[in-house]
Specification:
Strand order of the largest sheet: 6-5-4-3-2-1-16-17-18
Number of strands: 18
CATH class: Alpha Beta
Radius of gyration: 21 Å
Order of helices and strands: HEEEHEHHEHEEEEEEHEHEHEHEHEEE
Mean pLDDT: 89
Structural class: alpha/beta
Shape: globular
CATH topology: Metallo-beta-lactamase, Chain A
CATH superfamily: Ribonuclease Z/Hydroxyacylglutathione hydrolase-like
Largest sheet: 9 strands, mixed
Number of helices: 10
Length: 371
């Protein structure tokens, strides 16, 4: 009897150690959801806690895509909803989402800077109703989102930027040569001033680091990176969908990402100038795109295995020859979208290594921890 009991105790101990080892080997998973040039980015901690950054456009299309990813990730509630700013391609899916799943905590930059617009007034009224039964926090630089297993540090919000460098961050104190050539952009005629107010953060998971700045504009990047207050990151979500009015060399080359993820649409973001800055960034290994960019054409787009969503060959051919319309800064995406829609997934480990997977073709690439 004692032998059987001893064997049973040993078996339980083995099972417990195995479960602990499996828990320790779990990853922080990040899903970059196709909202046709909007944003909806889902972060899932090893314990299953969730943080969703923005909700894409209004309507069934983006809502369906978001719900599909939630099911894929096994998420049944949103623990933290982080709203970067008040533009419809970022907040548009919130009402349908709130009807579908519980949302426990909301984070934003405070009142919209575009409160004179009827659509914004209507949304803020509805937003106040949605958050009345939850916890709402208007964040400021230096605040933290209590996301289990990771450090989520707010670095920008409501035109305020982190004042002091992040202590102990890799790359802090290193020179940022791109600051010397930084040129501000004249944005005085831009009607979308809430972009400047975007709330953004750096997320650290062990040795792994990533950044999400919403649609923070070019001119605000200088004060974050000259000198560099953020350090370096492993994965950079392109600011402002890869439009050429964000994502300066000072920001990108200072962050020195190994991988960039671009949440562009076919005709929104993916500017040739943005792709050039990315591809010349020191230490960059790959650019992964949610869409093939008509503005990048064959010269600047990544190889197809790194692109989650492609048009039919005939459509692409009609765009490539003759060339797409000039400029590359239009706001519109493909009106009706496409089906199915594919996402890009990053699975990060505490040692700093991570994998990136394209759900369209199953292509996965492993990035080992930095030396």
């Amino acid at each position: 009897m004692r032998t059987i009991l001893t064997a049973f105790v040993a078996l339980v101990a083995v099972a417990t150690n195995l479960a602990a080892a499996q828990t320790e080997s779990q990853t922080l998973d990040i899903y970059f959801i196709d909202t046709e040039g909007g944003q909806a980015t889902l972060y899932v901690s090893p314990s299953g806690e969730s943080m969703l950054v923005d909700t894409g456009n209004p309507g069934d299309r983006d809502h369906g895509r978001l719900m599909e990813v939630l099911r894929e990730a096994g998420v049944t509630r949103i623990d933290h909803l982080f709203l970067t700013h008040y533009h419809i391609d970022h907040y548009g899916g919130l009402e349908l989402l709130a009807d579908a799943v519980p949302i426990l905590n909301y984070y934003d930059h405070g009142p919209s800077s575009e409160g004179d617009r009827p659509a914004i007034v209507a949304f803020e009224e509805r937003y106040a109703e949605l958050t009345s039964s939850a916890t709402r926090t208007s964040v400021r630089p230096g605040d933290r989102v209590p996301f289990a297993g990771a450090d989520v540090l707010v670095v920008a919000s409501h035109r305020e930027l982190l004042a002091a460098p992040i202590a102990g961050a890799p790359g802090i104190g290193a020179a940022n040569p791109a600051c010397e050539s930084f040129e501000p952009i004249d944005l005085s005629r831009s009607p979308d001033i809430d972009n400047d107010h975007s709330a953004g953060f750096v997320l650290t998971f062990g040795e792994f680091r990533t950044i999400n700045l919403g649609d923070l504009m070019w001119n605000y990047e200088y004060d974050l990176m000259c000198p560099n207050k953020l350090g370096t990151v492993d994965v950079y979500l392109t600011s402002h969908h890869g439009l050429g009015v964000s994502g300066s060399e000072a920001l990108v080359h200072g962050l020195r990402p190994r991988v960039a993820i671009m949440n562009n649409g076919t005709r929104k973001g993916g500017a040739a100038s943005t792709l050039e800055i990315l591809h010349t960034s020191p230490g960059l290994e790959d650019v992964w795109q949610l869409h093939w960019s008509y503005h990048g054409l064959v010269e600047h787009n990544s190889p197809g295995v790194f692109i989650a969503n492609l048009d039919e060959p005939a459509t692409l051919a009609s765009v490539i020859s003759p060339p797409a319309e000039a400029g590359g800064q239009g706001r519109g995406g493909t009106p009706g979208g496409h089906s199915p829609a594919h996402w890009i997934k990053v699975s990060a480990r505490p040692d700093g290594s991570f994998t990136v997977t394209n759900s369209r073709n199953g292509f996965t690439k492993v990035y080992q921890a930095r030396d």
